[in-house]
Amino acid sequence: MRWSETCLSEQLGIDPGKELQQLYLRILRQDPALTLDPPVLATEPAAVKHNLPAQVTSFNGRDWEMIEVREMITEHRLVTLVGGGGVGKSRLAVEVAQNVLDDFPDGVWLVELPPLVQPGITAQSLAKALSLGEHPIVPLEEVIEDRLKRKKRS
Ligand SMILES: Nc1ncnc2c1ncn2[C@@H]1O[C@H](COP(=O)(O)OP(=O)(O)OP(=O)(O)O)[C@@H](O)[C@H]1O
Ligand SMILES: [Mg+2]
């Protein structure tokens, strides 16, 4: 205030106006109304818990298979669905995954593995699905392992 008063007086030859004087007094009195509210930070988006595709068609039948696969993934770390092309292996897997979301507080992730002719990019596909980037020193497989071993199921 003193500085602006000096500037106004010396450079323009005028005195500070009434509003500026009142503001100066309010600052001296530490008027609480002048306190700025802390900025409202954007709320953190809810943690994404899966990347399962939304289905555009309803799921029919397969009641028994749903129960069976659900039980199997509870008991085993790796479960493979086999069957002829187009019989519904992927759809069944995704439907089960949707149904067990609550059992996995860290989420459930679909990884579309590349064709077997490109086995070298399996780790990249996994990392991409899990939103993991390459580390300058640590091999990608270890980065994935480190992330996954901290995930849990309820
Ligand atoms: N139970 C079901 N109810 C409704 N649609 C289904 C069901 N099972 C499969 N489908 C549909 O049939 C099509 C083929 O299913 P899906 O892709 O799961 O077969 P797949 O066995 O994984 O085939 P591929 O061997 O080519 O990988 C998809 O459009 C899928 O949505
Ligand atoms: Mg499939």
Describe this structure in words.
The chain has 154 residues and is mainly α. It folds into three domains: 33 residues, no CATH class; 63 residues, no CATH class; 44 residues, no CATH class. The chain is built from six helices and no strands. The chain binds adenosine-5'-triphosphate and magnesium ion (MG). Magnesium ion (MG) binds next to helix 4. Adenosine-5'-triphosphate binds next to helix 4.
The radius of gyration is 31 Å
| Overall number of domains | 3
Order of helices and strands: HHHHHH
> Which regions have little confidence, pLDDT < 50, spanning 5+ residues?
none
Which cofactor or ligand species appear? adenosine-5'-triphosphate, magnesium ion
Care to count the β-strands? 0
Largest sheet: none
Content of β-strand: under 5%
Structural class by secondary-structure content = mainly alpha
Q: Report the mean per-residue pLDDT as an integer.
A: 83
Number of discrete helical segments: 6
Q: How far apart, in Å, are the first and last alpha carbons? A: 62 Å
Shape assignment: elongated
How much helicity do the residues have?
40-55%
